[in-house]
Amino acid sequence: MTAVKITVIGCGYLGATHAACMAELGHEVLGVEIDDAKRTALAAGTVPMYEPGLEDLLAKHVATGRLRFTDSYAEAGAFADLHFVCVGTPQLASSLGADVSHVEAAVRSLAPHVARPAHVVGKSTVPVGTAARMAALLAELAPAGAGAELVWNPEFLREGFAVQDTLEPDRIVLGVPSPGAEQALRAFYAPMAEAGTPFVVTDYATAELVKVSANAFLATKISFINAVAEVCDAAGADVVALADAIGHDVRIGRRFLNAGVGFGGGCLPKDIRAFVHRAGELGVEDAMSFLRQVDDINQRQRARATEIVQGMLGGSVLGARIGVWGAAFKPDSDDVRDSPALSIAGQLHLGGAHVTVYDPKAAATAAARFPTLRYADSAVDAARDADVLLHLTEWPEFRSVDPADVGAVMTHRRLLDGRNLLDLPAWRAAGFEARGLGTR
Ligand code: UDX
User: Which domains, ranges and CATH numbers included, belong to the chain?
Assistant: First the structure.
């Protein structure tokens, strides 16, 4: 493999991971980060979030010298001829659309420093049509003119598996304007091609849509099983056995069929809303209107969990003590963006309950956003004196807690397993009134 000099513009979740992983592949990487605190932390080999394996990899390549950081676009333009744009595209405050202003700012800042033929590669998740606009902007502003080409290369990494997903992706998608651009990216990703990773080479619009379609499909799968879980509850059926059974059909597949309190995080909720919004702008809103229901079903799981807790407490949560296991939107992450666990904890708190939360990694990020909740130092402590315990983020640690130890500290032995992963018969054997969502 030939080592290539690259820059990674925007060193948040996606960028820090891409930068560290590309250094691991042997490339020379310059990270461009304008936030002083973030850049200083990264240059010292630390990452500002919890992601298994990332900090070790980053520190390793800061030490090898293959990974450096700067805030200078001039330095970036001089350093490399392959630039990856990894900035965030959060939901707009004014609508359900995605804010692409950081992508545009990155291209505008870099372009004047692209004086030699180069490729600027967008990895951020964007509304379809953005890449074409960015290509025009780049051609207009870069001294290299038509020699500066834009490529769209969406990223599919999952939090908690970011390093693995980046080093061993399921596929590499390239939206390219020319055979030369395809060649440059194929050469760069040669180690993955050698490992058998499939490449899908297409146009900008398709590459952009692949990403949002993948996330919309995953969200739809989760909301589908959550809708079925509600029917299972009404009919006395068991959604876990049902998911196992339909999942055996390879056309369906068992993954992403875990019913519970639903999806959260910085991607799925935002991306489906932005997809509906963009479809509306393109005049095909009706085609994507089902995604509104996917979103509604997802939100309803949070209300449903709250109502079930109310029912377990005899109709009101006012004054009740509630223990909550989990704050992150998923395990192996300290990300609490749009977290179902904290949304439910917050609703119960607003209803007048005393809520105590425990999360193995996300307590600090949760406390920063939800300072009015109480935070415990252990799973058992969160349950102390509680009238009901909620399992809302599926950290493996919770599955190894002995129900007897929890029951011994609680005022009333009641459990709602909002992830359908605890051994309910064992909890019932320990004297608990225990239930899941759509399970028996
Ligand atoms: C997602 C996509 O999976 C990834 O490919 C994309 O690049 C970014 O968005 P991520 O946000 O890290 O990744 O989370 P993911 O693993 O997809 O889980 C999303 C949410 O769905 C979590 O809150 C999780 O608890 C929930 N979930 C997942 C379910 O409720 N049921 C399931 O069966 C699976």
Answer: 5-202 (3.40.50.720), 203-440 (3.40.50.720)
Contact 79, 5 (CB under 8 A): yes
Ligand 1 mean position, distance from CA 268 (Å): 7
List ligand 1's pocket residues with C-beta within 6 A: 156-159, 215, 218, 222, 256-258, 260, 262-265, 267-268, 329-330
**What is the structure's pLDDT at 289?**
96
Tokens of 371: 């300072």
Question: Ligand 1 pocket: which of 158, 223, 335, 339 to mutate (most atoms <8 Å of CB)?
Answer: 158
Q: Which of 289, 256, 296 is nearest to 275 (CA)?
A: 289
Q: What is the pLDDT of residue 210?
A: 98
- Residue type, position 189, single letter: Y
**Nearest to 388, CA basis, from 351, 409, 416:** 416
pLDDT at 398: 98
Q: Would you please indicate which residues are annotated as catalytic (active-site) residues? A: 267
> What confidence score (pLDDT) does residue 64 get?
97
Question: 158 and 165 in contact (C-beta within 8 Å)?
Answer: yes
Distance CA 8, CA 95 (A): 29
Residue whose CA is at the smallest distance from ligand 1 atom 20: 263
Cα of 305 vs its chain's centroid, Å = 22
Distance CA 404, CA 390 (A): 16
Q: Which atom of ligand 1 is nearest to the CA of 162?
A: 12
CA triplet 313, 380, 328: central angle to 5 degrees?
80
pLDDT at residue 1, as a whole number: 75
Query: Which ipTM did the prediction report?
Result: 0.97
- Which residues in the chain land under pLDDT 50? none
- Check residue 2 and give its pLDDT: 86
